[in-house]
Amino acid sequence: MITEERKAALLNAMAKLEAYRQIQNEMGRAVSAFNFRQADQLLSFFALDKKDVSLEYADEGVFRGPEAVKAIIQETVGAEPKPGEMLDMQLTTPIIEIADDLETAKCVWWMPGAGAVPGENEDPTAIWAWGELAVTFICEEGIWKIWKLHYFRYIKCDYKKGWVDDTSMINRLNTPLHPMADTTTYHNPYSPTSIRVGIPCPPKPYAAYTDADKNWELDENKNW
Amino acid sequence: MFDVTIEDFDLLSDEEFEQLELEVGRLTSCWMVSNMRGGSAIYWDDQRIGEKRHEYMALKHPSVNVEAEMAFRNKPVVDSLEGNSLVHPLTTPVIVVDKTNTKCRSVWRSLGVEGLSKFREKPMAIISIGSVPGANVVEDGEWKRLWGAWLRLTKNEYHAGWVESMEPTNTRPPLTPEQDKAMLGKYAYQKDEIRKAVPEPPHDDTWEVWPDETDQSFQFIHLEQ
After folding, report:
1. What is the distance between the alpha carbons of residues B97 and B108, in angstroms, rounded to a whole number?
2. DSSP per residue over B198-225, as a string?
3. Using one digit for the tens of pLDDT, what is the confidence trace for A199-209?
4. Across residues A170-190, what is the average pLDDT?
5. N- or C-end of chain A: fewer Cβ atoms within 10 A?
6. How far apart are CA B13 and CA A140, in angstroms?
7. d(CA A155, CA B18)
8. Do residues A111 and A131 make contact, with C-beta atoms less than 8 angstroms apart?
9. Residue range A51-59: average pLDDT?
10. How far is A117 from chain B (nearest CA, A)?
11. Distance of CA A4 to the CA centre of its chain
């Protein structure tokens, strides 16, 4: 005799597997939209109906709320592309934990990337742009949406020089932070003097998202 | 859209339900092993020695030499962590879980980058291409690594490229080129050699052919031919 609890556990496991597939696909589509400079398409993957939707990248600050997220994506991804400009990020190393209640998911990917930065009256400069991505998804009416996205820069350097010799692009210039950005929560790119810390951390299995899960990706406790 | 309901299970016999349960469990295990490998990759980059961490290794398995493992983890191979990094992204997964959902063999490939500073000198930028073969078992309800290691294809100074440069595995005392080639460099790229087809990813019948989880033969089938 198969118990109802066992049936419920199997149904939950099947739903999680389907969610796992959907989340990987949605994130892949979002990254393609980013690479192709499709700002509106990229925004469609965000949970813009959530007041606390957020996007943080490198040391450019945290963009909290739908208006801030829309603004920074339109101003960067949606900016007029220049000839020779390119940034192609790729998703690897997925670490995905879906809450037992199937309402949220915590995900980490490592992202190798390559790009080209146009110059003034000269050929574009080929660059490496590698990072790590920590994303909290939320399921809204059966669709997985990006609720909180945090991109961590690992390396950003002139391709010809490499990540040891060229650290000129790892930190933002000393210009005013975007007016809609809050202070950066974490920034530790590779440099010849930096020490790696294992952040973003791998997400751990969890039952349901609570306030204590805010900034889960910054947990430095490795002995869990 | 996922539209299975719990009532659908009433259409199955107990035997059919149990088979479905097992197969769903095996698919979930592929995912959990991927998560475990990803977590290990993060901690591989974070190279603090002797630090308490979530244990990803199956230390209770009789084949694991815990003493040797702990000695390895506590042995420094660089003076300082400054400028040192090992980012080996995992791609191209091939994962085969056995029919009982208790053992798993897998191979990933990786195109990685490193920074290496052994004695606080200016780090060397390194391109590191390789693979990650291994086996996992369930221990305390969690998929753990029974064995598995980085298998190098290239480890070259960035500007020199993989044809001109091959850096040995960093150990103390340092390996001779002969020692390195006998260890992690055994199947590495050599400009004057035909590449050996190692590691072969596990085939679907890997557990029927090699039922012992400690058996690593599946990687080397092309060497025997």
Report:
1. 15
2. -SPPPPTTHHHH---TT--GGGGHHHH-
3. 999 999 999 99
4. 97
5. N
6. 34
7. 48
8. yes
9. 98
10. 20
11. 38
Residues of chain A neighbouring B4 (CB-CB closer than 8 A) = 11, 14-15
- Cβ distance of B115 and A190 shorter than 8 Å: yes
Tokens 């035909």: give the residue: B194
Closest-CA residue of B relative to A164 is B125
| Contact yes or no for A17 and B27 at CB 8 A | yes
Number of domains composing chain B: 1
**Helices assigned H by DSSP within A95-181:** 162-165
Contact B5/A6, CB-based, under 8 Å? no
Nearest to A222 among B27, B54, B125 (CB): B54
* Nearest-neighbour CA in chain A from B156: distance (Å): 13
Strand partners, B40: none
CA B13/CA B20 separation, integer angstroms: 11
Containing domain of residue B85, as a range? 12-224
A135 to chain B, any CB pair closer than 8 A? The answer is: no
**Would B67 be classed as within a structural domain?**
yes
Q: What is the CATH number of the domain that holds B45?
A: 3.10.450.50
What's the average model confidence in pLDDT over A55-72?
Answer: 98
Give ipTM to 2 decimals.
Answer: 0.96
Q: Is B17 on the interface with A (CB under 8 A)?
A: yes
**Does the beta carbon of B165 lie under 8 angstroms from any beta carbon of chain A?**
no
Token pair listed for B115: 């920074």
Flag whether B6 is in a domain: no
What are the structural domains, with CATH classification, of chain A?
A: 4-207 (3.10.450.50)
Q: Which of A89, A164, A155, A86 has the alpha carbon at shortest distance from A123? A: A86
**Does an H or E element contain A50, and which?**
none
